[in-house]
Automatic annotation (TrEMBL), chain A:
Keyword Secreted appears in the UniProt entry: no
Cell compartments where the protein resides: Cell membrane
Family indicated by similarity: Belongs to the binding-protein-dependent transport system permease family. CysTW subfamily.
Record-level GO cellular component terms: plasma membrane
Domain of life: Bacteria
Keywords: Cell membrane, Membrane, Transmembrane, Transmembrane helix, Transport
Keyword Transmembrane included in the entry's annotation: yes
Protein name per Swiss-Prot or TrEMBL: Spermidine/putrescine transport system permease protein
From TrEMBL, chain B:
Protein name in UniProt: Spermidine/putrescine transport system ATP-binding protein
Entry-linked SMART domains: AAA (SM00382)
GO CC, alphabetical: ATP-binding cassette (ABC) transporter complex
Ranges annotated as biased composition (Basic and acidic residues): 373-382
Key words of the record: ATP-binding, Nucleotide-binding, Transport
Gene3D superfamilies: 2.40.50.100, P-loop containing nucleotide triphosphate hydrolases
Amino acid sequence: MQATPQGGIKPWLLLSPALTALFFLLIIPTAFVAVYSLWLSSATGLATREWTLSNWTSMLADPFYWAILWQTLRIALEGTIGCALMGYPVAYFLARCRLRNKSFLVLLLLLPFWISYIIRTLSWINILGANGLINTLLEALGAIDAPLQMLYNEVAVVLGLIHYLLPFMILNIYVVLEGLDRNIEASAASLGAPPFRVFLEVTLPLSLPGLAAGGLLCFVLGAGTYVTPMILGGPQNAMFATLIYDTIIIQLNWPMGAAMSMLLLMLLGGIVMLYNRFLGLGQIYKSLAG
Amino acid sequence: MSEAAVELRGIHKRYGDVVAVETIDMAVQSGEFLTFLGPSGCGKTTTLRMIAGLESPSAGDILIKGRRVNDVPIHKRNLGIVFQNYALFPHRSVYDNVAFGLRYRKCSKDEIRTRVREALRLVQLEAMEERYPAALSGGQQQRVALARAIVINPDLLLLDEPLSALDANLREDMRLELKRIQRETAITTLFITHDQSEALAMSDRIAVMSNGRVEQLDTPQVVYNRPTSRFCANFLGNANVMGGRVVGGEPGAWRVDAGGREWLSASTDTWRQGESVAVIVRAEHFQLDVSSVDGEVGNALQARIETVDYLGMSARYIIRPEQGETLELIHGVHHQPLQAGTWVRVWMPADDVILLPPGDVTALAPNDAARLSPEDATRLPPEDAAVGKGAS
């Protein structure tokens, strides 16, 4: 892409609908949240319009929040790694298969998005639950006497995250592999590299941009989710967004919830900015567009 | 030249119902520079990919240095391949690109360094070791790709249209360069191109391909001057290809009727009187130097120049003889080409009138000149005949 030398007002005019939407739907609400985080909460749950930093200071001083934040990042990272390990082979297969209806396979990948994320998450209860598929099956086979406890732990949360995030990872890797020049691999092979070495020395390094882009998307989406830990996790598996939900909906402490939201936003925003600084966001745009 | 470096025995390739390569039987001598020349879709790339091991033939055997390699995977064939788009490793420096193949051949660190430097010197890129491919020009990337392919001292160097992505001037330089490197290393080289000038300039032998077949396999001079099929005659250079009939004569001096006039041909083949033949007359074999010719010489004709296609070093003329169909003629130009409308006297040496079996006429795009109807010619006033000036 080349920057057009043309300056002036025209680009801004063309962008104005998008900028207007962004302003009213994103900037303004975020500003509201930011303002809320600086108001004092009252016993009724309504915020008093009195400026204070107390929400921020009490949050930042409380090791509980930091522990949950750390746990959030860890679970998101586990989910991301799981997605990478499970997604790469699928993306590789999609990119390399010579089936005529390859585009249909890619469409299948997007199929889960047509079903509500919450329902998809709830479906795991039917699989992992005490009366779920696995336990019923194992009991019928006589392998176990009492149902195994598979829900409400970190593994279930990570599993749910992978289920939710896997398509994003696959698509990002797929797009890069699909665009990879096969002659580069052929060259490596002709020079004496056996297939697995070709993969390690050429295919994998050249597909890292897709892996990194998919990783970022999965990590940010994973770290921001509250549905998965709420449905599949136990009390000890709370993630930061779950905490925000509790604070706002249950404790009705809007200012505190707002401060927590801002903290998570700044943290994930910082990660995205770091990524963009060192790797560039271009790859993500490419795979989302195509 | 003991045994053939490469031998193709009845190679055939089909994809489903589509035949990519009909049948190819040929041998490439060790140290030879052999070019597969043909239009796109003629099967030349498929043939190269089968030799490389990127495709497997549906039938037939491929032998490299006398060893059947049909079931030998690409990484065990000891080949150097240069692709049209270079296909360098973008994440490796020039040095590491060239060293790649050596790391899979039991070479010590020192030996790798020596050989990489030597290969880079051969392609005149010694100073670029540390650079990454993205920081190189197209021509430089091409040289790195070549160095990477020859550093492993391959049994066979495969070049898949390596010059076509370069711009015109660079392409001619790289042509000489490639030929020099090939001569110095004496690596058997198979070169794929659709560009006849590349093929003529570089090859020891050319295999002209069409529809999955090798039409002619010979030295550039023979392929150019003595095409053995109508396809070769049409594909290389500009030729007048006419359907004709043998009127009489004997080997070395045949009279044939084609394109509305009689031609003398020195063809040494034996033809029957009345037999259908294709008469091929190369556009640049016409002689325009009229002073050396008197009117009684065979194949002399008066013609008016219809159109002039100025090409710089030469000009392509469509000439309309007093009788018969129009002909295409190419002649050197010093300063000014001849003007349209000028009358010229041209002649064609009987040696250069080539007779071939008529072959499949419909498979060929008819020559522009031959497509014009002969009736048009009669409308031209022969009185205006004037000898061309200015050319040659």
